[in-house]
Here is the input.
Amino acid sequence: MKQAEPKKSIEKPLNLDEVRAEISRREGQHWRGIEDALQTEAYREALEREFPKQTAPWASDLDRRTFVKLAAATLAMASLSACRPKYADKIVPYVRMPEEITPGLSNYYATSLRFDGSALGVLVRSDTGRPLKVEGNSDHPASLGSTDVFAQAAMLELYDPDRLSSILYLGEPSTWDQLTNAVNAAMKGSGKKIKILSEPICSPTLFGQIQKLKQANPNVELHQYQPVSTDNEFAGTEMAFGKPLRVRYDFTNADVVVSLDANIFGAGSGHIRYTRDFMSRRKMVGGNKQMNRLYVIESAHSITGGKADHRLALKPSAIGAFAQDLAAAVGVSATGPNSSDAKWIRAVAADLKRCGGRCVVIAGRNQPAEVHALAHAMKHVLGAVGRTLFYADPLPMQETKQLESLRSLTADMNAGSVGLLVIIGGNPAYDAPSDIGFIDAMKKVPMIVRAASHSDETGFHSHWQVPLAHDLEQWSDGYAFDGTASIIQPLIDPLVGGKSAHEILALMAGDARDPYQMIRETWDAAKDEKLWRRRLHDGVVGKTEWTNVSPILSALSQIRPAAPASGTELVFLPDETIYDGRFANNSWLQELPKPITKLVWENSIELSPKTAQKLGIEDTMGLIGGNFHTTKAEVTVGNKKMVCPVSIVPGHADDVVVLRLGYGRTRAGSVGNNIGFDSQYLRTSETMWTAAGCSIASTGEPYELVSTQFHYSMEGRGLVRMSPIGEYLKKPDFAQEYDLEDEEKPMGSENAEEPIRLSMYPQREYKGNAWAMVIDTTLCTGCNACVTACQAENNIVPVGREEVRRGREMHWIRIDRYYEGSLDNPKMHMLPVPCMHCEQAPCEVVCPVAATSHGSEGLNEMVYNRCVGTRYCSNNCPYKVRRFNFKQYADTTTPLLKMLRNPDVTVRGRGVMEKCTYCVQRINAARKRAKKENREIRDGEVVTACQAACPAQAITFGNKNDSNSAVARLKAEPTNYALLKSLNTEPRTTYLARITNPNPELEG
Amino acid sequence: MSEMNGKYPEDMGLRDAPMIEGEHDYGTVTDKIGSIVLDRPSPRQWYIWGGIAGICLGSFLVSFCWLIYKGVGVWGINNPCGWGFDIINFVWWIGIGHAGTLISAILLLMRQRWRTSINRLAETMTLFAVCCAGLFPLLHTGRPWVAYWLVPYPNALAIWPQFRSPLVWDVFAVTTYLTVSALFWYVGLVPDLATLRDKAKHKLAKIGMGIMAMGWRGSAAHWHRYEAAYLALAGLSTPLVLSVHSIVSLDFAVSIVPGWHTTIFPPYFVAGAVFAGFAMVLLLVIPIRKWYGVADFVTMRHMDWMAKIMLATGLVVFYGYLMEMYYAWYSGNQFEIALASNRLSGDYKFWYYALIFCNGLAPQVLWSKRVRHSLTGLFVVSLIVSIGMWLERFVIIPVSLSHDFMPSAWGGYTPTIAFGDVMFFLGTFGIFLGGMVAFVRILPMIPMSEIKHLLHLEKHESHPAAQAETVA
Here is the structure.
């Protein structure tokens, strides 16, 4: 039986009179229906649902606090939403496939990375729009396919989770529009000066923008500064030739190279190319019987000094006198102070004169102008100009007096005449000389706009902070060390909202163009699409700003370097891995062992053994349980004191205190804050590189340094085998003698032609490819590029200071540094050690679960997901190249770091062993390509990450079964030897013995 | 203490010294031993040691959880020293176990009657020591949850363990050892459990003992089968005494690490194991016989024998140390020589000399009868030997690893303390002590049935027929 529904009660009965009154009240307005006129609750609800915005409009008087609250809430909600997978719903294939992007296949784009005021051409691997790995651009003259540690670590810079990610005004988030308003107001403002402070600029487009801005607004001035400046180089040419000049060397033509404290292979524009060129003259393979000769005169042992055929350690102040003596000896001037080692001067001068201008005398940045001038004069007199080096006028954007530039800026700031200061890059609040008082001066500027990748020390003292786009995120351009122009194209949209310097300049100038248009206008004025694309593709424009000039040598009689000072001298040098501190927040570089000291995560006062002895601290230093204990010492210069831990570096000049820049940062980020000590504190504008009259005293306070290698000596184990070229030519297979001397040679092999193979296990046959590697110890400088390249390629995680202290660093390739000879001026050897991929691998037989096993092509393969983690393989590895995940080292949660990972390489979890794979992912990629094309893998098709990065081309990889392959040819060299051959491991990685070219006059 | 503790009459040859002292008959033996389990209140020391074991167990739980949570990185192991406390302790514990098996099995087969009163305690010690030992190789792996991959079992991955690896042999050796030891121990317990079942008044004890006694009624058939099974198990255990530690030593000997790669390891390790095992038995027996007043059954004659075995095995071990040095020199192999000189003069030389003192020199005092007959002396020497045997593994394992082929990779080893190596090691003492404490409370620590057998023999020793009779 159907019941009648109860009648709904009408909450608000219709009252037509009210409606009429309402409508008449809204005279002249439209009404949509009776409900509208009534404004009933139901109507309101419906309205809210339909047009929520209209019912609750923003209060126009929204105050800042509420806004920030809402912004914070939004951020929190946004982060919450990020807690789940971004694409949780459905994966829909591209409706329209973006051209050129195939998931699983990488594209390489040519671009450039700028460092030290010059551009380095690189190719960047991109996977589905994600930049992954930097390789050198073989078309670019600064790279020729190689890179350095900084270029390799650029990827972590890009994905650094600590990057400044929004525009900040007085520490609070702000917007680009607000910045625009503020900058416009300041630009129009009081007629005070508008200053732009930048790191050295190499972008013609940016410089053009600045020039234009200057024309439009005469108050605008540009200053350029970086702590490792080129001032002395330009001052030297000015002194020698009356005007500052750029210098470019051609080491391929140089038979004799004399370095006056120049770290040619270290860092700085052009060093990659210089290394490559220099080493191309040192390859003692394929019957080559000649090599160049390198003399290094330096205060602090550098990797260049390590490669020297003759090395002389001198106090910085004595290097000037040496240069003078040498100059006199080659005929630049009549006499020198005659204070140097006469034998050395005689021998070097004779060598230089003999080579008929095929020589280079090069002074380091930290040498005063006089030494540079003398070096130029020598080259001039010896006839090297035009053969091994070339001069050109500085580029228009090049600041030849950076320190002066910074000083005048600071003076203007202090005078209160600066109305707006825009600081792009750099970090002057941290790295300006301490006596300049940059931070105090900053306080006198009403508005400072700071564009940087991080909210750093300078940002802290600025009003506005703008995230600066990474070179991989922007359109720009730059000149290389030799004036070659290249275009910088973005690999990805700015990840954290970074703006490029072009955008900031455009903002100041009110320029409506975007950077892409600007770059295109600079390099494609003719709008030739094809040419533009070619230039982008090549990464090199083809236009080189280099016009050789033939300068005339001024009278050099008045060039008198300061006389050698007595007492202890201080030397400031850029750090080998974090440079001037700009890379302080880069954990790859922090954990990269310094090439010489092998310290990580900190700097130290470096002293020679004798200096340490004088200080009476050598007995407080040493190893305790495998950790390096040292003492702190107090360095005093003038009225400034600093207490820091000491390390002893054999080969440093006596009475020299070496301090490395770049540490002690307070606002570098979560990685780089408060580690090491800030040498800048002792560095003044007068003592940018050296300070005489310093004193050092032990405080007796113990300290534990963290190093990756403690033992200096090879213990006569023939790990690096060296011979002078003369001996080598007489007995090319000298390297084999070490093995013959070895008492553990397999029985029965004494007289046999073929050594008898002793193994319980059958010999494997490798029918197809047999991958192998040869590392040439003659060429390796120990620059670490391979280590960082491997880290970037293979998802190797840094583990932090404490874990390295425990001996748990994860690098798959390490560079062993050994000393040979006297403690005070030893010969230094660099030995890169990746996995040897032994044919009779000791690790394989002891793994209980076959997690490390032998591949059919001879790779010693690591199966991560089979690994139980007994570490037996590592114990049994005589080369100790295996690395264990003692904890969960890989960060698998930080989104930015996830983007960093190479998708072709497993991210290893806790509890598994890992090691060098010979870049098996690259082998497999090549195999796929070859199979598709139905051919064998070509020689040179597989290039391992370490090999690709190596500026010295010391690493060769390939198929040793193919007798024509480069690697097979090197293995046939008489200098080819295996590490620890007596263990019968039959390693696939072998080494070429080191050959040096000493001057017989200096021998014995 | 009733007997002439430590003051044997000079004229009394050991051969003639009684193995059971005091006036005992079957009844008193049952009373004396059985009552410890059934009705005597535990001595104060039992509570003290129970408390200590509890604390250690707590530290085990904490450090175990921390280990599982963080990974083996909480320990001091590193590269190059991939093994540290974990494997030191594994070898140490498993070595300790050996005395138990030696006493039970080999001495049984060799008809050494004196083993009777200490064999149960020694076997129990073996069981718990092997449990402690087994924890280390299991938990020292980076991913212990997949450690079962070392066991050959049919699996969907169609992959076997890698049989060339000594670690796989270890799995077989240790699991076999544990199984056989447990069986041997249990079979030996059955007659005693039946005795206790019959004597027990508490219902729980009756049921518990009853189930464990498996219906033992002491019939001739039972005894016949018991003796056969016991002898068979003894036969099975005997090779294990030699094989287990030989295989453990192969973990090192098979590798190519200088200091590990040496052929003397198997006998040297076995001797070391027996050496350490007897030291540990003495460490346990000396206080227990006092606290529980069972000195009548564990007499000075036992002490003397054990001391002599320690002395003998200690000499073998010492010979091993000397040989290691000699071989290093004689081989002319630079790596071996470098390692030997590192032991003598490297970072860890103090520990090497401590080892030589503990295992080489200190046991020499056992030549003296005075020391052998002094409980305090024996206790001290045993303690020193136990420490020494631990140091031996320390010197072999991390010290060798820290200094192998590549000088650049040389490093060091520093164990972690809180939540790490030391705490975990202490924790295994919790398992060991806890096990022992529980054992002496709930099971007869001296085999009553065997003592009765011995009593029978002793009583009729003068009888010419009995003298000819065999024990088994």
Observations:
- The first helix of chain A runs from residue 16 to 25.
